[in-house]
Automatic annotation (TrEMBL):
Pfam family, one: 7tm_4
Keywords: Membrane, Olfaction, Receptor, Sensory transduction, Transducer, Transmembrane, Transmembrane helix
Highest taxon listed in the record's lineage: Eukaryota
Domain G-protein coupled receptors family 1 profile: 1-174
MF terms (GO), sorted A to Z: olfactory receptor activity
Transmembrane segments: 27-46, 86-107, 119-142, 154-173
Organism: Cyprinus carpio
Gene3D superfamilies on file: Rhodopsin 7-helix transmembrane proteins
Topology in membrane: Multi-pass membrane protein
UniProt GO cellular component terms: plasma membrane
Any Gene Ontology biological process: G protein-coupled receptor signaling pathway
Protein name: Olfactory receptor
Length: 174
């Protein structure tokens, strides 16, 4: 979003991206979305009857390892978890791709090749970070759903590394 505004409307950047708008749009909006995405799985998992072990086999208390402990049909919870994960992964990724398509169209209209290169270079580091984050997470998600990783500890390690390493590389790349 920030790069879209900076490249497509550079002269209006400071009036569009005010502190209040950033606070409301980005932070309040994202936190609201996260709460909405997480509240329903928690409510539905809390209503399930648990009759076996209550030890969650995960490094963090996620929806999937919790509802798998229930002693009833959990197909709705599995579908809800899949929908939530796809929304959380593909929603922001679709928005990023959409904004970059607009940025590419705007940059190709710039007459100077040096200005085009500067605009693409500005976006390149962000795209690298997006790929560094989304590719391992989506790969871990696909491998887990297709049951290609049978060892749960290995799956947990792959998922943990895939969401930990990219943010740690963020300061190095920038």
């Amino acid at each position: 979003y920030d790069r879209l505004i900076a490249i497509c409307w550079p002269l209006r950047y400071s009036t569009i991206n005010t502190n209040l708008r950033m606070l409301l749009n980005k932070y309040a909006g994202i936190w609201s979305l996260v709460v909405l995405l997480e509240i329903f799985p928690v409510i539905f998992a809390a209503r399930l009857p648990y009759c076996s072990s209550r030890e969650v086999q995960s490094c963090c208390c996620e929806h999937s390892p919790v509802y798998k402990l229930a002693c009833t049909d959990t197909s709705f919870n599995r579908q809800l978890g899949t929908a939530k994960t796809l929304t959380a992964l593909l929603g922001p990724l679709s928005f990023i791709i959409f904004t970059y398509v607009i940025v590419v169209v705007a940059v190709t209209r710039i007459a100077s090749i040096s200005q085009r290169w500067k605009a693409f270079h500005t976006c390149l580091t962000h795209l690298l970070l997006v790929l560094l984050y989304y590719m391992p997470v989506m790969l871990a998600y696909v491998l887990g759903n297709l049951r290609l990783i049978q060892n749960f500890d290995l799956y947990t390690a792959v998922l943990t590394v895939s969401v930990t390493i990219p943010p740690m590389l963020n300061p190095i790349i920038y």
